[in-house]
Amino acid sequence: MATASPAPSPGAGWFPIASIMFGVGWGANQFASLLGLYTDRLHLGDGAAQAMFGVYALGLVPGLVLGGPASDRYGRRRIALPFACLSALVTVVLMAGVAAPWLLYAGRLLAGVVTGAVLAAGTAWVKELTPVSGTRMTALAVSAGFGAGPLVSALVAQWAPHPLVTAYLPHLLIMLLTVPPAFRVPETRVPRAPVTREAGRGRSGLSGVRNPAFRRTIAPVAVWTFTAPVSAFALLPAFVPVHHLPIAYAGAITGLTLASGMAAQPVARRLEARHPRLVARAGLGSIACGLLLAALTIATGLPVLNAVAAVVLGAGYGFVLTYGLGEVARIAAPDELAGLTAVAYALVYVGMFAPLLLTVLAKAVPLGAVLTAMAVLAAACLAYVSRQTRASGRERPERREPATGGTVPDVRECSARR
């Protein structure tokens, strides 16, 4: 079994790892605000740009599912750092896509693999370096990267020459600055020996997935995490554009959405300390309201309503992301933290397919009606999760013993006890 390294002291070295997660998040989402430009310049068909956006999730899931357990087994450094270096190479592939559009699909797929591996390993690494605030730090770093990347790339693409090349240059600079310091951060997991067939019989390595708390109150919330913000920034600007500044407008909506998510996370953490049940409820409630605002945006054609919907959907994203990562860190056994985090992120990124799905559905059903139906589904999910938490008869389900035996308390949980 992997064990924690005794070398690093609590809080040592977390910033360089959070920085590479910021950079990888930037690289993963810098493409979002360029969807319309690619459609115009490369004469892509309906839904092609959204398909490029969504194919990222196809790479992300194996990156998460393989990278998380591999990080638990082989150590954080061996997964996070090589894949962080590959993030810059993926950006070069996207830059070449202006001449060969098929490279955009390849680049987006590879971006998913890279992001999944770094998110899974990096989240666990920061959590182990700074147990009390690690989950909050990683959520903020990733959200900041997701928001800043498309905003800056849009501003560059709106006014710089050769926009589909120059828009990616800031990411290369960021990775050049953030990756070298990360190599000096100490490892927190000692690589473990391969588990024999006999010793591993009966263990999946992800016992937390079987925890009722994961199935009933984490998974149903996680699937809405990115469905909310991408509906605001990857879908609405295409249907309700600002014609004289289309790229900058798309980037501004993306930045506003994810900035709202960042601003919501500290509020969610404070609410979590007093009323843990309400974090998921507030997030799902915001998402349901935001989807109704998105439907109203489509009905009225007013870009200003897109901005309002972006704020509400972004806040919902921040709440449910904080809730999901916090609960995963609480229920995960020590040797499966990255693996269970990876499973949660895989559910989170199902939402990346929302723009493609909604674009396809909009050909048969009015988009406003589809968004309204999604709001109803989010409200139904809110009712289900609320019922599950009430049925537990306590603020949070008790931590189950991990499959390896023994109970490992969560630092946040202990500090919050009154």
Automatic annotation (TrEMBL):
Major facilitator superfamily (MFS) profile domain sequence ranges: 1-390
Stretch list, region Disordered: 392-418
Stretches that traverse the bilayer: 12-28, 48-67, 79-103, 109-126, 138-159, 165-183, 218-240, 246-266, 278-298, 304-325, 337-358, 364-385
Biased composition (Basic and acidic residues): 392-402
Superkingdom of the organism of origin: Bacteria
Annotated keywords: Cell membrane, Membrane, Transmembrane, Transmembrane helix, Transport
UniProt protein name: MFS transporter
Naturally occurring in which organism (per UniProt): Actinomadura napierensis
Lineage: Bacteria, Bacillati, Actinomycetota, Actinomycetes, Streptosporangiales
